[in-house]
Amino acid sequence: MTLEDNTEAEAEKAKQEEAGKAAESVKDKAAAPESKQPDPQKGADVPADEGKPAEGDELAKWKAMSRKNEDRASANLKAFQSAEAELAKVRTENAYLIAKSKYPQLTDEALSLCSEKEPDKIAAWAEKYASLNPVGDPKSVKTEPTEDALARKVAMQAEYPSGTSHPKAQSGDAYKRAMERQKARRSNKK
Length: 190
Hints:
The protein has helices at residues 3-31, 55-102, 108-112, 119-132, 147-159, 173-189, and strands at 36-38, 45-47. By secondary structure, the chain is mainly alpha-helical. The protein has a two-stranded antiparallel ribbon. Helix 2 (55-102) packs parallel to helix 4. The longest helix has 48 residues, at 55-102. 3% of the residues are buried.
C-alpha cells in the first residue's frame, strides 16, 4: 500500500465515523425527552416541539372543525326547510287570493271546502267550482236586489220623497217659489 491509499482509507474511515455520529445524534434527539429552548417572549425554557402541533392535536383540530361544519350544515338545512315551508304557505295563500279575485262567486266559505294545497290544483278546483256555480247566468241570479243596491234605494227615497231621484227644475218653478214666499210674508203681517 502506498501513502496515498493509506490517506484515502483514513479519510473514508473518518467520513463513516462522522456519519455514524450524526445518525446517533438523530437517534438521541428522538429518544431524548423534549429538549428545552429558551422562549424569546417569555424568557423561560419551553419545549422545542411547541410550535409544531403533535399528531393527536392535529387530529383533534380536524375533528372539532368537522363537528363545527356539521352543526353549521344542520342549522342551514333547518333554516332552508323552514323557508321552504313558509314559501309554500305563501304560495297557497296567493293561489286562494288569485282564485277569489278571478271568480267572484268564490267566498271564504267556499274556499274553506277546498282541501288542495298546491297553487295549480287550487286554480283547477276554483275553475271547476266556478263552472258549477256561475255568476251572471239569469237562472242563477236572484231577482232580489243586493244589500248595497237596497241601501242606495232607501237613501235616495229618504232624500227625495217624491219618488224621483233627480227632479228637474220645471219652467215657472222660480216664480212659484217667489209667490209662496210673498204669501207667507203677508200671512205673517196680519
